[in-house]
Design goal:
Blueprint (H helix, E strand, L loop, with lengths): L1 E6 L2 E6 L6 H11 L14 E7 L9 H11 L6 E4 L3 E7 L3 H12 L2
Antiparallel strand pairs: 1-2, 3-5, 4-5
Helix pairs in contact: 2-3
Amino acid sequence: MAMITDRKGRADISFAVIDTSLESVYNVLDSIKDNFQTQEIIVDRNCALIVIYNTSRQATSGLAGKIFARLAERKINIEMISSSLTSLNIMVKRDKAMESVAAIRAEFGI
């Protein structure tokens, strides 16, 4: 999962890294940060990535809206979202991961 936002001349780059790779990824970013005028590198270990994979997603109208509504009902904040033709990627706080998955499963009867 990756996201780039740009506002008022500032670009923020966010992406998910598996725990076992975090240290090496951080070291690489730290070694090149001066090349990009990086102000800071922030690591948030309290995140969980949920990937909803659906090969027929194009035909599934309202999938994201249904998921977002279920999470909102449970007051689960979505930290980051990205999507492709076959997947919807949602980042939530780690302590809300299992509740989020349960809500999504309940919505779709799986």
